[in-house]
Amino acid sequence: MRDILNRMIRRTRYVVFRLFLHLGGSGVAPILRILNSAEEDAIEADGDLEVLGEGLVEICETLLRYQEYWLSAANEGDVFWDEGEAGDYVNNLFTDCAQRYLGESDYSSVSGFNEPLSVSVNHNLIVMIVIAYEGEVPELETDLSNVQALKEGLKVLINLHYRHQLRAIAVHFSPAQLGDELTNDQLLQYYPELVPLETTESESTVSKPSPQAINEAIKVFLSYAPEDEALLEELVKHLSILQRHKVIKAWYDRQISAGAETNAEIDEHFNTARIILLLISADFLRSDDCYTTVERAMKRHQAGEARVIPVILRPVDYQAAVFTNLQPLPVDGKPVTQWTNLDAAFANVATGIRKVVEELASNNL
Predict the structure, then answer these.
(1) Is residue 118 very low, low, confident or very high in pLDDT (cuts 50, 70, 90)?
(2) In CATH, which superfamily holds the domain spanning 215-363?
């Protein structure tokens, strides 16, 4: 009703829009050069919308070319009938983007823009685009956490520049400085809006998958003693970012469906897992069921069917165990409960698991 009344009195409709796009993979480094170049031009342009618009076009075209690295996205916005209110909201979003983790550049620390640019070993890159435009653009005033919708949205951003409908443009990205690292945990903490991108069936058959999604999510089977369930749950929390982005699919027996045949479901998940985590403690080694799982896991490991990783939860002498020659986690086999900070211990474990996942994905084990 409010929109109808404002149109009747011919008031100008302003829309302020923000897009988050998360890209991942070793191939995203060239995008960082485009972003840095566009930001340098934006600083020199001193608010010239024509220059800012050309930079936005180049960024959107680049993002469209690198679609295979898209992992997640989010968008938000609002409609205003007062130019001043729209401007205030643009400023608020601009400030928020700049204050996001690793979202603010520091050119004083960079000797030149011709230096090689690269993202961190984690290969995470966030692009944040804020614009204000006049009129109605249905392609932007909808949920863009879908690959096809996002593609159309980026194309519309390009057209808005050429139709001279843009009234404000700002682009931020993270990490914005050479040498900075945006880890998966920081991604979850500082960019909680992100939603994994959905792909339609037709897109999935023609689009090149991202490096982290070349195969289906890698299945991870967790074997543990009931006495260690609390520690298991903490580990699962630290693996949540990998699950959120469908890099892994972790499973343990608490996830058995009601009415299912317990042994059959356990066997199904065990036999299809590419990573088997053995959560080691005195209770685990004492359990006949757990040790049977160890022996079965080692057979799959030796056959090259799965990777077995011992995770040392509590101090115990396991030197006579059949897995003693395997590299354990956390680092140096230091038991989780002997770390001063449990979160630091499980973060170390999660990092080790992620590296194995990346290795398996690259080797296509």
Answers:
(1) very low
(2) Toll/interleukin-1 receptor homology (TIR) domain (3.40.50.10140)
